Amino acid sequence: MLFLSTAVAILAALVLADLALSAAVIRRLRETETKLIEMTSPPASGLPLGATMPEFVSPDGQVASADLAGSPTLIGFFSAGCRHCPAQAEKLADRAEETANNGVRVISFLTVAEGLTDELGPTLRKAGVLVMDDSPSAVMAALQVQGTPSFVLFGADGRLAARSHDLSEVLGSR
Prior knowledge:
This protein is of the alpha/beta class. It has 6 helices and 5 strands; from the N terminus they run αβααβαβαββα. A 5-stranded mixed beta sheet has the order 3-2-1-4-5. The protein is elongated, with a radius of gyration of 25 Å.
């Protein structure tokens, strides 16, 4: 009987120790997850909502901010080799008719660096005007876009209405 009581006491102690260690591991995992989310989330940057569209001209001279006045304009930025760009380009192409029916002009900027293939061009051409460049453009700098894919939506008044890395978030605001 003494042996059984001792075994139960030891087992209870081991179970309590296991619970304490499990709680510590779970707490550490949650802390690590929070830090990871902070590290991988893009910083809140770019033009503030309500900002006026800055002046710019595309590298090929095809698009200028002055030409966009008076109508809502969605500008998308993509790059060849970008992991998330193909899915966002498909979303943009799929919503091309909807955006056109809403009077929104769509312009896509595609950066294709040397050695990469232009696989997104045909998809982006379905959505609207496509401007291609071999390096991040001055337009990205003017609009304070720091990564791809990125979208900025300007209203007919020329003010920034929405911005995001996800097209659904930008067009969902309309």
